[in-house]
Amino acid sequence: MKKLVLCDFDGTISPWDIGYLLLNHFSQGDWESIDRDFSEGKIGSKEAYIRVSKILKGKKEPILTFIRGHSNIDPHFVAFYRYCNENNIDIKIVSDGLDIYIKTILEINKLSQIHFYSNLTNFIEGDGISISFPYFNEDCGLCGTCKKSLVQIQRESYEKIFYVGNG
Question: What are phi and psi of 107, to 5 degrees?
Answer without folding.
Answer: -60, -45
